[in-house]
Amino acid sequence: MRVHDVLIVGAGLAGMRAAIAVPPELDVAVISKVHPVRSHSVAAEGGINAAIREDDSWEAHAFDTIKGGDYLGDQDAIEIMCQEGPKDVLELDRMGALFSRDERGRIAQRPFGGADFPRTCFAADKTGHALVHLLYEQLLKRKAFVYEEWYVTSLIVEDNTCKGVIAWDLITGGLQQIRAKSVILATGGYGRVYSISTNALINTGDGMSIAYRAGIPLMDMEFVQFHPTTLKETGILLSEAARGEGGYLLNSKNERFMNRYAPKKMELASRDVVSRAEYQEIKEGRGINGCVLLDIRHLGKVKIMERLPQIRELAITFAGVDPVKDPVPIRPGVHYSMGGIRTNEWGETGLEGLYAAGESACVSIHGANRLGGNALLETIVFGKRSGLKASERAKSIRSLDVSSKSIKAEEDRIAEIMNRTKGEKVPVLKEEIGQIMSEGVGISRKREGTERAKEKVKKIKERYRDVYIQDKNRVFNTELVSCLELGSIIELAEIIIESALAREESRGAHYRLDFPLRDDTRWLKHTLAYKRETAPRLDYADVRITKYPPAERKY
């Protein structure tokens, strides 16, 4: 029988930072469907925000974040992140983070979109990669137990309390109960709900889905961020660092078209503003083969190789373009989820014993649109906080009494899939739902198109009941995992659609062609989605405002 004081599902930055925060006298374990250094956090390129300069302030950072989120973020939580961020980033520095340095030997910082100060700390354009390896070293030092290549299928919930998880061991095959006094979900985002995304193939929203099925509301799921600079065919991300270092966006007329949309901030307006501007240029015929151009040639080869080496490598490898010599064709692509499992500022959910942190959670820090550099900061600040709070609870629990009912239910569910000899194929359904979401709930939405998407997803949900897999082996059955992931994708697609249909306004990343204006009178509120068999039940919660009343957002 496997029992831990604190069990963390997900081994990206939020999960590992939570594990490191657990005191040494407690038994902590991390469970992940991939090896920790393969977590999607490695793909975060541009940097991590923190007000660490004398001429910057946490208050300025907080205001930029609130404004960037189009005033939907909870301001008390934002203030916590911005206040604690500098200390937490300097702690990473002391651990040995390989941050780039300025001429005085200080942590280097660059401008990022939507910020009025260059406060994004970075390690060239591989910041996430550097921090993941740093925290994995700390995880080994902490001697945390790591379940590598395990897929969590559900939570163990008894007496209105989370008491662990049910997980499939990919290496040996089979389900096991893993009991814990506290469980933290840190499973990342759901970009693979869409056909083309900057997200890794593992980002299927599993943690959000298992929390939702356990009765926890998902919050603000209609807000899906499109990143302005992704490669057309693959969705591979070219970091905001390119624009932070001074890159231009050009249309087919060789114009820096952001002058029309955000004359003050230009290419460094918030991501939703820049993405919609690109979309508009392409739609109005000023694009080039469905793209616009990212031009960093004027930065020179020396600076590109020092600050943006990965961007150059990606552009050459996947687009056949050397950005030292030519502009790179780019377009907006699905990148990040502002929504997630509803938590408070300590990661606590509505279920006793269950916590969440990172992209899988919604505190809400990012409101309707995330600023670049705030995602990594959220993982560190709130990963640490959830680890501390989960530890407090674990210390207060003496023993766990868990029945075998939950594992029996999961065994029956998986046996039903394994025993089918014919039916729908997983890759077909996954491809269809990705296209449906891209077309009906994309960078701009309209009731007719989103209603069509709703009906199509409803049919796919019915077809999923007859899904079957060809691989009947138990050991390393990745087809089974893909099938279970598809269930999460369908669930989350349904929630995104319902939430987007209900919100009759445009705010941040949620842009309704039929309701193009922000409506604070009716819609300055969070959307809450609760599990119901037929369709999600929606409810709403107030946005917590401290000292920054909503104002018109201009860049």
Characterize this entry briefly.
The protein has 555 residues and is an alpha/beta fold. The chain contains 16 helices and 21 strands.
Explain what you see:
The protein has 555 residues and is of the alpha/beta class. Among the domains are: 230-332, Flavocytochrome C3, Chain A, domain 1 (Alpha-Beta Complex), CATH 3.90.700.10; 405-521, Methane Monooxygenase Hydroxylase, Chain G, domain 1 (Up-down Bundle). It contains 16 helices and 21 strands. It has helices at residues 13-21, 58-68, 75-95, 127-142, 206-213, 241-244, 258-261, 271-283, 301-307, 309-319, 374-396, 405-419, 426-440, 447-464, 478-502, 520-523; strands at residues 2-9, 28-32, 48-49, 109-110, 120-121, 145-148, 150-158, 161-169, 175-185, 218-219, 224-230, 248-250, 292-295, 328-337, 340-342, 354-356, 361-362, 424-425, 467-468, 525-530, 537-542. The strands form 5 sheets. Strands 1, 2, 6, 7, 8, 9 and 16 form a 7-stranded mixed sheet that branches. A 5-stranded mixed sheet has the order 17-15-10-20-21. A 4-stranded antiparallel sheet has the order 11-14-13-12, with helices on one face. α13 (426-440) packs antiparallel against α14.
